[in-house]
Here is the input.
Amino acid sequence: MATTNPLQFIQQVRSEVSKVVWPTRREVLLTTVMVFIMAALTAIFFAIVDILIRWGLEFILTFFG
Here is the structure.
């Protein structure tokens, strides 16, 4: 791999960064809200699954214990 001098490297980095399509403030806000909603739904789902597993284990242990 060929080495480039620092000036060329900085020029290449600036060229690549200029190609990036940055999200708007609204897009960032909407995706952030969606992440929080999905995290909350996931937490609720796993809490319900945890409760059901606990009830099932308690039933099995009291029935056979």
User: Anything to note?
Assistant: The mean pLDDT is 94. The longest helix spans residues 25-64. The chain is about 80% helix and 0% strand. Residues 23-64 form one domain.
